[in-house]
Amino acid sequence: MFALVANQKVVIDWPCFWVVLGGSFLPRGVYTVLLFKMQFMLLFSRQGKLRLQKWYVPLSDKEKKKITRELVQTVLARKPKMCSFLEWRDLKIVYKRYASLYFCCAIEDQDNELITLEIIHRYVELLDKYFGSVCELDIIFNFEKAYFILDEFLLGGEAQETSKKNVLKAIEQADLLQEDAKEAETPRSVLEEIGLT
Amino acid sequence: MPAPIRLRELIRTIRTARTQAEEREMIQKECAAIRSSFREEDNTYRCRNVAKLLYMHMLGYPAHFGQLECLKLIASQKFTDKRIGYLGAMLLLDERQDVHLLMTNCIKNDLNHSTQYVQGLALCTLGCMGSSEMCRDLAGEVEKLLKTSNSYLRKKAALCAVHVIRKVPELMEMFLPATKNLLSEKNHGVLHTSVVLLTEMCERSPDMLAHFRKLVPQLVRILKNLIMSGYSPEHDVSGISDPFLQVRILRLLRILGKGDDDSSEAMNDILAQVATNTETSKNVGNAILYETVLTIMDIKSESGLRVLAINILGRFLLNNDKNIRYVALTSLLKTVQTDHNAVQRHRSTIVDCLKDLDVSIKRRAMELSFALVNGNNIRGMMKELLYFLDSCDPEFKADCASGVFLAAEKYAPSKRWHIDTIMRVLTTAGSYVRDDSVPNLIQLITNSVEMHAYTVQRLYKALLDDISQQPLVQVASWCIGEYGDLLVSGQCEEEEPIQVTEDEVLDVLEGLLVSNLSTPVTRGYALTAIMKLSTRFTSVNRIKKVVSIYGSSIDVELQQRAVEYNALFKKYDHMRPALLERMPIMEKTASNGPTEIVQTNGEAEPSVVEAKHPPPVTQPTNQANDLLDLLGGNDVVPVIQTTVPTKPASAGGELLDLLGDLSLSGIPPMTAYNKNGLKIDFTFERANPNPNIAVITIHASNSTEADMTDFVFQAAVPKTFQLQLLSPSSNVVPTLNQGTVTQVIRVLNPQKQQLRMRIKLTYTHKGSAVQDLAEVNNFPPQSWQ
């Protein structure tokens, strides 16, 4: 603002040149918010149809829908030559396309984007091993299995098991448990189904 | 009642729908069937129905009526039911709804289930979406499982504990005992999740951090084993053993080593080893290197290691993979302040990234380039940045233009270069520059007295080419109005003077007035410029005619101006020459920073830099520059500078003054600045009769063997103060303390606040320009009380 002082003084601001930098290596206070966390993972097709959504933060259905819609639009608008990372709101989005499916993770500021790409890749490998050359249709028709596999690999947004073999073994065992339970029931339900109860 | 259709059957059916309406109809029908099935409390098909509901939920349809059913499934004894039930809970329930609390008891039971996969389901659900209440209730169970020997459960319990701590930080203490031997585990899953848990605890509590520092050697050992061990098929990713674990360990080391010398030293070797031995051909290796670099930069690493880290980033910049380049630029941006010189070495690579195709990379490269600009590389960098400005997307142009202006003001090697650069920006990105750049540029031009002829000529030529870019047009009209006489008389020294007549100039200005491309603001500039030329040109009649035409303009602003100018011609013609005189050197009038600065003497080149966000100005900026507005009651007073130093520098005697003023006011003198041989002392006295004014005399002395010439002292004070700087005794500080330069500062401190001052010193010493900023906080209390 102008300051009218007696004679010849006018006010100028002090120079401030530095471009705002995002974070720095200077020591942070110890009580800063923890910023390593995957907030959510979305899988969607090239037409923008959601195939899987895993949320690790509490949000209302409405908010989830809004985020999904906007993010899907943003990612689908990216050209193939662009890098796999983008800044969106105050999150970092790591995405990769495998055939007709986009795998999209939202991580927080201090997280390592490159290792997130590896996490996505590991999940795809798990799906591939489980379904045998996985394709989008497998995930559509067996979405609950895709969730089960994800839940054996990640927990709360972090990897719980770094060995592919162990994840698949656990899924296998759990599936067997399911089968055993079903077998125990089968006689009854077959009779019911042919109407001979 | 027929059995509800199977899940896959439903999916197949829905996918056959050809329109949204058809799909919606199918969904509604099925939902109705499911609802009646739920009403019948059918245990057999509940699982199938909920699964179908989850599918429909994913398509975007409401599924809240299935929430209670999920709870019933969780409570069931069948594993299949539980599996789907927990999945449904994670998808349909959230902590805002109280109904989720009904899960707590089921989860508690399942955490103690005999089958580990059921326990696993419970841990997973709790760790993914447990609310604070649930976490409080179940933390004990989680803690128990953290101590189990079953590694399948232990790893899940660790991550569940992380979630509990995030939700209820006070519970962190109770997990401490269980962490005792987490790192002695052989199982990688447990190791990985344990490291995550330890990281969480260390980040949240300085006590925990101190407590866990002793784990550094163990972590280093584990990391070393991972690197040195042979091929392990179970954990191998492209030849690297368990990269996920490596990255987490590196991250924990970062947190433990930060600010602690001993820990940093203990991890020095392993960091160097990882940095040099990791395979970089695939993304996974680079992910580890990236984490290593982040760690090196954050801990107290020795300088060799830091240089290694920056060089890794430099190599990243050359990587074909754009993801790697992006990550490198981001990291360099973070480190450019602390390791400026090291980053400078990679400047040319960074500048090359400006040509990258990816938007995010370009943006980062631009920010980094501006951060790297300094007095030595300004010419080269500016060439690249201007080229970038030419070819970049519109979303960048505004920021790039601002950056160029800032850099140019800070480091311009010469006035002509500065003006050329600004002209280049205006002509190439003229519509994207910020509004405040127009007055800034005008001020810059005014103050570059010797460049007036050159400037006005270049601007005139630019106008002839293009009148669509408003900032350019505004600046050009203003200059033509001011310096039209120089233009017409062909006085340019810097380049070949052009031949232009008064009529041609007036044609151009009138053209601006009538053009559809000109905004009202621009028209205002043009009209005022034409008016000013009435004292500089001979064809006054033409000008009178133009002005009178606009007296009836629809634009109120133009009309008012024209009417006033008309009045000037008619009734106040005797005042006209004085009013339309050449503008004196003026000072910038923005104050959005916390301090306000006062310029010293007029010969100093104003080294002000525009801040990013211009302050709200009460009047349109062109009026500020227009002397005529004195009539309108503008509150800007044009600054008349004291240009000549009043006292000659006296040798020797000044030294005594340091002691002389000592006890005149009872306020002790102080040394405000002492660096590189330049010492500045302040002595104080109270001004009578106003006790709120402190009079400070600065004494600048030079203990080096060369004179400090062109010495300029500037000061800034916080907003509540007012400052007045009188002329300095001289602008040469003689060598070897042979004399001092004195200058008087008067500070008005009506609120009796603690006096703080920032000072800026510029001088030439041994042929090079020196500039320094300093904060003066050690004022004796008597000076401001």
UniProtKB/TrEMBL annotation, chain A:
Any Gene Ontology CC annotation: AP-1 adaptor complex
Domain AP complex mu/sigma subunit: from-to ranges: 38-177
Top-level lineage group: Eukaryota
Homology family: Belongs to the adaptor complexes small subunit family.
GO molecular function terms noted in the UniProt entry: clathrin adaptor activity
Nucleotidyltransferase listed as a keyword: no
UniProt keyword terms in alphabetical order: Coated pit, Cytoplasmic vesicle, Golgi apparatus, Membrane, Protein transport, Transport
InterPro entries listed in its UniProt record: AP1_sigma, AP_complex_ssu, AP_mu_sigma_su, Clathrin_sm-chain_CS, Longin-like_dom_sf
Keyword Signal: no
Assembly and binders: Adaptor protein complex 1 (AP-1) is a heterotetramer composed of two large adaptins (gamma-type subunit AP1G1 and beta-type subunit AP1B1), a medium adaptin (mu-type subunit AP1M1 or AP1M2) and a small adaptin (sigma-type subunit AP1S1 or AP1S2 or AP1S3). Binds to MUC1.
Identification of the protein by name: AP-1 complex subunit sigma-2
Organism of provenance: Astatotilapia calliptera (Eastern happy)
Record function comment: Subunit of clathrin-associated adaptor protein complex 1 that plays a role in protein sorting in the late-Golgi/trans-Golgi network (TGN) and/or endosomes. The AP complexes mediate both the recruitment of clathrin to membranes and the recognition of sorting signals within the cytosolic tails of transmembrane cargo molecules.
TrEMBL record, chain B:
Intracellular or extracellular location(s): Cytoplasmic vesicle membrane; Endomembrane system; Golgi apparatus
Gene3D superfamilies: 2.60.40.1230, Leucine-rich Repeat Variant
Keywords: Cytoplasmic vesicle, Golgi apparatus, Membrane, Protein transport, Transport
Topological type in the membrane: Peripheral membrane protein
A GO CC annotation given for this chain: AP-1 adaptor complex
Top-level taxon of origin: Eukaryota
InterPro entries on file: Adaptor_Complx_Large_Subunit, AP1_complex_gsu, ARM-like, ARM-type_fold, Clathrin/coatomer_adapt-like_N, Clathrin_a/b/g-adaptin_app_Ig, Clathrin_app_Ig-like_sf, GAE_dom
Domain GAE: 665-780
Entry's Gene Ontology BP terms: intracellular protein transport; vesicle-mediated transport
PANTHER family: ADAPTIN, ALPHA/GAMMA/EPSILON
Similarity comment: family membership: Belongs to the adaptor complexes large subunit family.
The protein's name: AP-1 complex subunit gamma
Species whose genome carries this gene: Astatotilapia calliptera
Origin organism lineage: Eukaryota, Metazoa, Chordata, Craniata, Vertebrata
